[in-house]
Amino acid sequence: MSIPSDPEWRGPDAEVPYADAVAFMERRVTEIHHGAAPQCVWLLEHPPLYTAGTSARSTDLLDPRALPIHRTGRGGRYTYHGPGQRVVYVMLDLRPRGRDLAAFVRGLEHWIIDALARLGIEGERHEGRIGVWVAGADGRAEKIAAIGVRVRRWITYHGLAINVAPDLGHYRGIVPCGLLDHGVTSIRQLGHSATLADLDDALLSCFESFLEYPST
Prior knowledge:
The chain has 4 helices and 11 strands. The protein is an alpha/beta fold and about 220 residues long.
């Protein structure tokens, strides 16, 4: 399978410090805006940490001493990043795509759902809740993928995080995405053996259809 040159497909990279990743995205967004570099999709992992989005509430941070905390300009509230979680940072130019941020986020959700389906996992969207959900062991909806994006000059950055086999115990230090009534799960927790590499292959296989958003 060929890897796109524009958008550039980077990684997968392991244990990238969060501040380094943000610095790269800031530079690339400026370069994309000026036509000096291609759009970019970056697959990586972070060391264990919490990030606080623009809607983060202090009451959602249950254990301030558990892990390093990074304030970030992406949308959303608190979330966890760490090994075993596929983070995908998506730096795309929305100017030729209708400048429709809501359609872009729906496209990300459908991209995740399509990739999970290739691994035998049924994901779904829930109206009013950004991200991708699956049925847990008790039938209740649990979150398997989070989305938090930022746009500058109509260039997107930040992106999505899909739980493959992270330490789910780290989520106990926060109220993930501000959701009290729903759990967080992973591909491994669901009983599937797919690896990060398997998920990467599925994401790449579904990438072309993702670029055809907006989708309903």
